[in-house]
Design goal:
This protein is of the alpha+beta class. The chain has two domains: 146 residues, no CATH class; 288 residues, LCP protein (Aminopeptidase, 3-Layer(aba) Sandwich), CATH 3.40.630. Helices cover 51% and strands 12% of the residues. The chain is built from 17 helices and eleven strands. A hairpin with a 5-residue loop joins strand 6 and strand 7.
Length: 463
């Protein structure tokens, strides 16, 4: 009889323990369920109502969310992170309390230990997503504050663009580092964006543009009234090309009344004068830093159309074919000078950047989020004010949905040795002039355009 009683009670105790854990697990997604089961009606009802209200509010906000809300949310990262931390603590405590109100002491000792361990795991698992979100939000805020640290001067306006129809951002790729002296801007582009439609024109200037002219009356114009010309540092080695303007200005503070770090502002003014358009901000990315990001994402699949020789002594070789490249290999593919001119290098750099954008796996980004954010803080420089991100995010959404065209000032369009400055300005003005609506455009007679839809140069259209 005694053995039969034990056989009957063991399954009952197992079932009671399983039911207890089931109610605790239900409370993780439906707070208050365990409290209602235990007879805590007021507490259970309050938790359930609060939870449903919060979920409803989130759904309504998400349904009505737009890029403008996403932009404004960048100003609330600290507050959202605090809410996420509070939610993590609240969910952890909720699971434990849900376990306790179900009176686990009625179970035998082994049942209490087993259910307690499971409840603890559920508590940690329920709190983990909120804690992880809070961590990502904190890292994001720190990264944005580090990269976009320039304050906005003057009172805030309802129109962030001050009545202008276009903004122009200078996009640069540089190569500074511990083993290199100064900054040389090997990739020089201007993104001219229509703030109403998001229609964008990418204006590309070659790094090897000679006899660069500077704005009249500027310190660089007084130093080089007939264009940027310097003696060769060694036979065949030119340092008076467009890519050296930043570094030359940094190296000669005496031209600017002793002010240091004038490279960025000087290059902005130079490009603005060259194109005939104002430059609002610049963004400089360390091209070599992309190797670390590529490695963090697990490499990059690229099609090498012909053998690429690289290295200081041409000791490296990337054979032709499609393969997964490491960060260093992808950057050598983009930057090798052996048997390549600057225009071929510019094409390969576009291939690498576009492949990186296309192949970035969101899961991999989340797994290495903190590492990638730390890398970003070290490879990006910009003078875009932090508060302007609120307005640039919705503008970026417009750009994503609008037409993006490209105008590259390369031979035969423009000679890099003897540039036609007036033609550069004329082509720029024509490229960024307002375009007719799609209906009017179809009715208009076909005419040659200075710009074309942007392509990565690898046979794949850019989305």
């Amino acid at each position: 009889m005694r053995e039969a009683t034990e056989e009957r009670t063991a399954p009952e105790e197992t079932g009671r323990g399983a039911a207890l854990i089931g109610w605790v697990a239900l409370s993780a997604v439906l707070p208050g369920a365990a409290h209602l089961r235990a007879g805590w009606r007021r507490t259970g009802t309050l938790l359930l109502v609060c939870h449903l209200s919060a979920v409803t509010s989130v759904i309504l906000v998400a349904a009505g969310a737009d890029a403008g809300l996403a932009g404004r949310a960048l100003n609330w990262l600290s507050q959202i992170a605090a809410v996420a931390w509070a939610a993590a603590v609240a969910w952890f405590c909720l699971i434990l309390h849900s376990y306790l109100v179900l009176r686990p002491r009625r179970l035998p000792y082994r049942g209490q230990v087993a259910t307690g361990l499971i409840a603890g795991v559920l508590a940690v698992a329920s709190a983990a997503p909120f804690a992880l979100a809070a961590r990502y939000l904190t890292v994001s805020r720190q990264t944005l504050d580090s990269v976009f640290g320039t304050p906005v001067s003057g009172p805030r306006s309802h129109d962030p663009w001050a009545g202008r129809e276009r903004i122009n951002v200078l996009l640069l790729g540089g190569d500074w580092g511990r083993d290199r002296v100064g900054v040389r801007t090997d990739s020089i582009n201007v993104a001219s964006v229509d703030v109403r439609t998001g229609e964008t024109v990418l204006l590309g200037l070659p790094r090897n543009l000679e006899h660069v002219r500077f704005p009249p009356g500027s310190p660089m114009e007084r130093r080089f009234p007939y264009g940027f010309e310097l003696p060769e540092s060694k036979p065949g080695w030119r340092e008076d090309l467009l890519f050296s303007v930043w570094q030359y200005a940094d190296d000669h503070p005496e031209l600017f009344g002793g002010r240091r770090g004038m490279g960025a502002e000087t290059l902005k003014q130079t490009v603005a004068y060259t194109l005939g358009v104002p430059i609002d901000w610049y963004a400089l990315v360390n091209i070599w830093g992309f190797a670390k990001i590529i490695d963090a994402l697990g490499g990059l699949v690229l099609t090498v159309d012909h053998d690429i020789v690289f290295g200081r002594y041409d000791e490296g070789l990337l054979p032709a074919g499609t393969r997964r490249l490491s960060g260093a290999e992808a950057l050598w593919y983009a930057r090798s000078r052996t048997f390549s001119d600057d225009f071929a290098r510019m094409r390969r750099q576009r291939c690498v950047f576009n492949a990186l954008l296309a192949q970035a796996d969101p899961a991999a980004v989340l797994r290495r989020f903190s590492e990638i954010a730390a890398i970003a803080r070290g490879i990006i420089r910009t003078d875009i004010p932090r508060p302007m991100l609120e307005h640039l995010v919705p503008l970026a959404w417009k750009v994503k949905r609008a037409e993006v065209r490209s105008l590259q000032f390369m031979p035969p369009t423009i000679s890099t040795v003897h540039p036609d400055w007036e033609r550069i300005r004329e082509l720029t003005a024509k490229a960024i002039e307002p375009r007719p609506s799609p209906r009017r455009r179809t009715r208009a007679s076909a005419a040659p355009s200075a710009t074309a839809p942007i392509s990565d140069g690898c046979g794949t259209p850019h989305p």
